[in-house]
Design a protein that fits this description.
The protein has one helix and nine strands. It has about 120 residues and is mainly beta. The chain has a single domain (about 10-120), classed as Elongation Factor Tu (Ef-tu), domain 3 (Beta Barrel). It is globular, with a radius of gyration of 17 Å. The two termini are about 15 Å apart.
C-alpha cells in the first residue's frame, strides 16, 4: 500500500553529482507556509500564514568535505532518494544553511539544513 513504507537506505546528491553519506534519517519540512493563530480584541481567533522555505534537517558522515565551501556553495538543486520506498525529494534552488558541528567521537556532522525555494516529491 503506497505511503506505508518508511526508512531504508537514503542518498543525498548535490547538483554537481557529488554524493554525501547520510547518517540516520532526515527531517522534512515540505510545506511552503507556517500558520499561527492571533487573538483579536473581540476574542475571535484569526490565522496568519507566513511563507517559509522547504527544508530538510540532515545528519551526515564527516567524510572530510570542506564544510566552509559547502556552506558557501551556490544555490542548486539537491536530491534525496529513499531507495527502500522509491520516493525522491528534489529541493529546487536550494542552499545549505545552519551551524555545522562535527562530532569527532562518532564522525557525525550535524547542524546542517537544506533550504529551498521549491520542492518536488516523486514516487
Amino acid at each position: 500500500m503506497p505511503g506505508k513504507d518508511f526508512g531504508g537506505e537514503m542518498r543525498l546528491r548535490l547538483a554537481d553529482g557529488r554524493s554525501m553519506t547520510m547518517r540516520g534519517a532526515f527531517t522534512l519540512g515540505a510545506s511552503g507556509i507556517s500558520s499561527e493563530s492571533v487573538t483579536n480584541q473581540d476574542g475571535s481567533v484569526s490565522r496568519v500564514g507566513t511563507p517559509r522555505p522547504r527544508t530538510a534537517e540532515l545528519s551526515l558522515e564527516d567524510d572530510g568535505t570542506d564544510v566552509n565551501l559547502l556552506m558557501r556553495a551556490p544555490r542548486q538543486d539537491i536530491y534525496i532518494t529513499e531507495d527502500f520506498t522509491g520516493v525522491s525529494h528534489i529541493f529546487i534552488k536550494a542552499m545549505i544553511t545552519g551551524d555545522p558541528r562535527s562530532n569527532r567521537a562518532n564522525g557525525e556532522l550535524t547542524g546542517i539544513q537544506i533550504e529551498a525555494s521549491g520542492y518536488d516529491r516523486r514516487g
